[in-house]
Amino acid sequence: MGAVAAPKQDRGRATRRRLLEAAVACLAEYGWAGSTVSVVAERAGVSRGAAQHHFPTREDLFTAAVEYVAEERSSALRALVPAGPGHRREAVAGIVALCTGPLFRAALHLWVAASDEEQLRPRVTELEARIGREAHRTAVELLDADESVPGVRETVQGLLDMARGLGLATLLTDDSRRRERVVAEWSRILDEVLSRRP
Description:
The protein contains nine helices and no strands. It is an all-alpha fold. Helix 1 (about 1-35) crosses helix 4, helix 4 (about 60-80) runs parallel beside helix 7 (about 120-145) and helix 5 crosses helix 9.
């Protein structure tokens, strides 16, 4: 009995993962209005019924999708960028990259939808708070930042806010050249601020 249950659970997890990844891709490409459960199910290669089995409502699907992909990207960033002072520029570039890709675009569409959709707003507000805390923790870890030093916490948060701003700029134009200069300057600022002692 256990041998049958394991493959079924594995298939269920794989289906769920495909749905979550497809949901973020659809949200990034089509926005909230164009991203329905049917569109996501088709992209994921599963039936609408299977999608609704895993996510009973559209809101369940899209909030879970943004959270899942944010966690995946955060884990990938931690795996790719070594922590510590010698890797600050890589950390800043990685954090900025998280805010200039499809995940950021999908999250932005979700935020805009939440501003109009009463039932979605509290879920997205809570989701954004969780993702924001995790992003801050990841940044502190990668930058090897000591937040007991005055100004360090605010500087790390400023980095995250700046990265979001670059993400917004990227939606309209290819901002990569300016972005490289901003990453270099933020790396310099962080080296200066994070070298302070308590």
